[in-house]
Design a protein that fits this description.
single chain; 420 residues; alpha/beta; 8-stranded parallel beta sheet; 44% helix; globular; NO2/SO3_Rdtase_4Fe4S_sf; 4Fe-4S
Length: 420
């Protein structure tokens, strides 16, 4: 035998050690870092001043699986709307914690609108645009003081599109005095990391506990993001928020985000993630939540919903029946999960196989909890169904999709209903 028989390592590297930050709204507590599961979050794109429209989108994101939702707080109208948004969500039974995104005027908005400061569960502060010169330190301090007053955790989110220019100039000057100066790219990395860590240290000096600080260093390049987070993880134990900023639209944004975040997550880096997709006109904002969940689930880091295994199709599968059925089942499972996760614990571990012909169909179906092998081109017009590895029935006729959906529903109620 050419290959030596031995244990082969499988799975992600051990998680980077970090503090645990608790983000609360009433009885709901979402923990970021420590030994907690990696948290999925998203952000609204409504006008926050539209309290009803924003609350509706937050509800959609929360039902899709977003465990934290960030909202823009950019002017007094938005700040005044935040308590109404929180109240509306509470009336709808949506307890997802809200994160307020503050920039240039965050210090005055938090001070002038205490109801807003209290209604939010966490603040996001970008140290690169809280003010210029002497005002920067003062306004940053005012925001941290508000966080201390209301006992709110803070994400210090550095972005290379709005990096503190005075800090960048300082590091460039230091680099110019080196015998062999570092590359401009490395200087940029160092500026991002320094901004995040020095801001966190300053926040602690101002009285914010270290276990209420999360850091992020967002960039738009895949390799840049990987390099920055590998490095910042060496210098601190604050939890890290991962996200490729301005990832883009459609497949480009999905592929870029997946490429960057998957490498870091595999190395044990990252405690919460957001997929920053540019939505298509009229597109579903929840797509960024689904992509985040699918990254974590396909990597084996978390379970959110049953996994649908489906073949890609080939010349043996000229019929589109299996494609339509796979899409129907995927949509059916996603629609049911908000209900099922309350009533059928463990259902997220279920695998469903929808296969298109006899080559791999029966084998894959036997390995899934439930599987169906649809007839390929020229095969007998029958679809055997396998349940827990055993052939249970054969479906025929024009209602295979409806009949198989009922088989799945019955299985969930029988298998996972017992857990309650």
């Amino acid at each position: 035998m050419l290959v030596e028989l031995k244990d082969i390592a499988c799975g992600a590297s051990q998680r980077r050690v970090s503090r645990a930050v608790a983000i609360r709204h009433h009885d709901r507590v979402v923990v970021v870092g420590g030994n907690a599961p990696i948290v999925v979050q998203s952000m609204t794109n409504t006008d926050t001043a539209d309290a009803i429209g924003t609350a509706i989108q937050i509800k959609e994101l929360a039902r899709a699986g977003s465990e934290l939702v960030r909202i823009t707080v950019n002017n007094p109208e938005a700040a005044r709307a935040v308590p109404a948004i929180r109240e509306q969500l509470d009336r709808m039974g949506i307890d997802v914690p809200l994160v307020g995104d503050f920039h240039y005027n965050g210090h005055s908005l938090l001070k002038d609108h205490p109801e807003c400061a209290q209604a939010l569960s966490k603040y996001r502060i970008n140290p690169g645009n809280v003010g210029q010169g002497a005002k920067r330190d003062t306004q940053f301090a005012q925001m941290i003081e508000m966080a201390c007053l209301y006992q709110k955790p803070v994400r210090i989110g550095v972005n290379w599109g709005s990096l503190d220019q005075s800090l960048l100039a300082r590091i460039m000057d230091e680099n110019s005095r080196r015998p062999i100066p570092l590359s401009s790219q490395t200087v940029m990395y160092q500026a991002l990391i320094t901004s995040a860590i020095e801001s966190a240290q300053r926040a602690e000096e101002l009285g914010l506990p270290g276990n209420q600080i999360i850091l992020s260093c967002k960039v738009s390049g895949v390799q840049d993001l990987i390099s920055v987070y590998r490095e910042i993880g060496k210098y601190c134990d604050y939890p890290l928020h991962l996200g490729l900023t301005e990832a883009g639209m459609g497949s480009k944004g999905i592929v870029a985000s997946t490429a960057a975040l998957s490498v870091l997550l595999q190395e044990g880096i990252g405690d919460t993630i957001r997929i920053s997709l540019t939505p298509e006109p009229g597109g579903d904002r929840c797509k960024e939540v689904f992509v985040a969940q699918e990254i974590l689930q396909t990597m084996g880091l978390r379970k959110f919903m049953p996994m649908v295994i489906a073949c890609p199709g080939c010349g043996r599968t000229t019929s589109t029946v299996f494609q339509e059925l796979a899409d129907d089942i995927q949509s059916f499972l996603r629609e049911q999960m908000p209900i099922w996760k309350e009533s059928f614990p463990g259902v997220e571990n279920m695998n469903v196989a929808v296969m298109g012909c006899i080559v791999n169909g029966p084998g894959e179906s036997k390995h899934a909890n439930i599987g169906i092998s649809l007839p390929g081109t020229g095969e007998s017009p029958a679809a055997p169904v396998f349940i827990d590895g055993e052939k249970a029935m054969t479906l025929r006729g024009d209602q295979i999709a409806r009949d198989f959906q009922k088989v799945v529903l019955d299985y969930v109620q029988e298998r996972y209903g017992k857990a309650t």
